């Protein structure tokens, strides 16, 4: 045995598989030409946030638009930062938003696909086999430097205004002979495994990022850590091994990783892998005090995907909105194709924003109003019940008491060429529907009317309400009562001589509206009254009269 073979055996006594075995186990995928294999690879260090949902959406769109494949890999190598239930939350969130995960991690003990395991903590043997192979080629070595020693080197580099890190002459353990290294291992000294970087900082590498264009950065010359003291890989190393073995063609991820591309390309090269194509997604931005900053997990509640669930945004709305910020021509496409499924949109990575798309809650609300306006009353009712059950239990009780009544509320002004767009999210519904369940407590009467006029309107209308009337008859009744109380039945007439009347037919219906709902602006009043029924209508007219 050579010295390197001995070292490799001492480091990884239980590893008997070689890279060739894994190559055979995970052969190239049999997909049609041009099909892209992409993935979302979240770390369960928190709950699903909008950035991950956005990146996942871009991946999903890429897979769908190329007849490719989208898989989920759980990157759980940072046990210290792991959050209980984080993985389940991320997975459930992606599903809730309708992303099509074709393969990968599916939960604690479940996965689909032949390229797993898809949870990094289950892949230790694979990583170790590749590091063992690198040791045999003298491309990786154990490093015994303690954190105190590393800090001392860093301080020295900083003091001399040099680049910090473990490279060149500072990479002291790269000079240990295999025998020296074995001695330290046998003495029980802890170590990490490092790459023997073949890079040179004075050379530059060039790569084409599919979103950001051509990027040039100095080559990596740092002997980066491949395996930590506990044998767990770093993100860099796991990325190279996993994305190769899972046969990823395109790595679409957050742009915080751009600076690491030189490391990654070098790893692919030393491992003998073909590098994937990269597309780095700029973060979602937010405008604050006139300037743009990244949407922040700490500062912005809307950065958490839970926010949208709590507020009751239909997942459809959030997805529709994310598409508008993914490709700026999506909105025009949607206008021309109002009923087409989103998957029909010709998505293109190259059309993504390089500087970061701006997130705008008002815009989301507008998009969502359109989405909700296109839903059926039955679907709205069901979604409202689902939301209220978790987030507004008192309202759930009211909405669930009489489903036909609730559906009636959400049927008003739905459908037709110009549906009303009052609702952006389900948490708008308690306020929207309040007067269906509670009599008004305040009456914002039209300012141009005196109490006496209002009393006249209500008293005259009281005996006339007939629930059997259709909209036209209902309106004709209101019009017909105008002359008897001195109001003008025609708005045009009224405008000619406003001083001749206390008000016009529109004021009469506003008075009735305010008496019914406590509001001046509501959906179709005739429908509201017919849903409330004769008893409540009469009661509310009397109640309003009593306040005058
Ligand atoms: N686990 C990494 C992260 O959450 C994945 C980055 C990648 O997609 O490669 O940032």
Commentary on this structure:
The chain has 548 residues and is of the alpha/beta class. The chain has helices at 3-11, 19-25, 50-65, 86-96, 124-136, 147-159, 178-186, 235-245, 261-270, 305-311, 315-326, 330-336, 361-373, 377-391, 393-401, 403-411, 429-437, 451-461, 471-481, 491-496, 505-517, 525-532, 534-547; strands at residues 37-40, 69-72, 103-107, 110-112, 140-143, 192-195, 204-209, 213-218, 225-227, 250-254, 277-281, 285-288, 291-294, 358-359. A four-stranded mixed β-sheet has the order 1-2-3-4. It is elongated and about 110 Å long.
The helix tally amounts to 23
The biggest sheet, with number of strands, parallel, antiparallel or mixed sense and barrel status, is: 4 strands, mixed
Strand order of the largest sheet: 1-2-3-4
Instruction: Write down the Rg.
Output: 33 Å
Low-confidence parts:
none
Q: Report the structural category.
A: alpha/beta
Per DSSP, what share of the residues sits in E-state strands of 2 or more residues? 5-15%
**N- to C-terminal distance:** 104 Å
Bound molecules: glutamic acid
Annotation, overall tally of beta strands? 14
> How confident is the prediction overall: mean pLDDT?
96
Binned, the helix content reads 40-55%
Using the alpha-carbon principal axes, give the shape.
Answer: elongated
């Amino acid at each position: 045995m050579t010295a390197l073979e001995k070292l490799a055996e001492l480091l990884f006594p239980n590893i008997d598989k070689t890279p060739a075995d894994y190559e055979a186990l995970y052969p190239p995928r049999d997909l049609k030409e041009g099909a892209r294999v992409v993935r979302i690879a979240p770390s369960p260090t928190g709950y699903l946030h909008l950035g991950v949902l956005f990146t996942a959406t871009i991946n999903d769109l890429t897979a769908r638009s190329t007849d490719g494949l989208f898989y989920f890999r759980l990157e759980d190598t940072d046990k210290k930062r792991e959050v209980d239930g984080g993985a389940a939350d991320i997975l459930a969130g992606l599903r809730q938003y309708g992303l099509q995960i074709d393969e990968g991690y599916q939960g604690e003990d479940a996965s689909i696909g032949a390229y797993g395991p898809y949870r990094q903590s289950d892949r230790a043997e694979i990583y170790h086999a590749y590091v063992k192979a690198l040791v045999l080629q003298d491309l990786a070595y154990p490093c015994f430097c303690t954190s105190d020693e590393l800090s001392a080197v860093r301080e020295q580099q900083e003091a001399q205004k040099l680049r910090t890190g473990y490279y060149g002459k500072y990479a002291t353990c790269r000079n240990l002979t295999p025998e020296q290294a074995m001695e330290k291992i046998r003495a029980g000294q802890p170590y990490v495994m490092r790459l023997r970087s073949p890079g040179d900082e004075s050379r530059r590498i060039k790569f084409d990022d599919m979103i950001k264009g051509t990027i040039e950065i100095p080559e990596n010359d740092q002997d980066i850590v491949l395996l930590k003291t506990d044998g767990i890989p770093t993100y860099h190393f796991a990325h190279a091994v996993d994305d190769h073995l899972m046969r990823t063609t395109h790595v679409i991820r957050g742009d915080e990783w751009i600076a690491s591309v030189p490391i990654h390309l070098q790893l692919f090269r030393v491992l003998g892998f073909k590098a994937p194509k990269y597309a780095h997604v700029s973060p979602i931005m937010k405008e604050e005090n006139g300037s743009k900053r990244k949407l922040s997990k700490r500062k912005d509640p809307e950065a958490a995907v839970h926010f949208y669930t709590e507020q009751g945004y239909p997942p459809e709305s959030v997805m529709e909105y994310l598409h508008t910020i993914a490709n700026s021509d999506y909105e025009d496409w949607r206008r021309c194709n109002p009923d087409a499924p989103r998957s029909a949109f010709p998505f293109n990575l190259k059309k993504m924003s390089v500087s970061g798309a701006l997130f705008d809650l008002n815009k989301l609300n507008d998009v969502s109003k359109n989405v909700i306006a296109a839903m059926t009353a039955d679907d709205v009712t069901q979604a409202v019940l689902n939301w209220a059950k978790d987030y507004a239990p008192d309202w759930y009780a009211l909405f669930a008491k009489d489903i036909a009544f609730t559906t009636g509320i959400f049927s008003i002004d739905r459908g037709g060429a110009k549906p009303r767009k009052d609702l952006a999210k389900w948490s708008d519904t308690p306020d929207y529907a309040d007067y269906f369940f509670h009599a008004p407590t305040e009456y914002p009467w039209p300012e141009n009317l005196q109490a006496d006029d209002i009393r006249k309107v209500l008293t005259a209308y009281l005996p006339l309400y007939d629930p059997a009337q259709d909209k036209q008859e209902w309106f004709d009744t209101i019009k017909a009562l105008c002359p008897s109380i001195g109001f003008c039945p025609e708005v045009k007439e009224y405008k000619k001589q406003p001083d001749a009347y206390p008000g016009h037919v529109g004021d009469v219906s506003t008075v009735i509206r305010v008496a019914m709902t406590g509001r001046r602006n509501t959906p179709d009043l005739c429908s509201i009254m017919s849903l409330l029924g004769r008893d409540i209508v009469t009661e509310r007219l009397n109640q309003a009269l009593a306040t005058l």
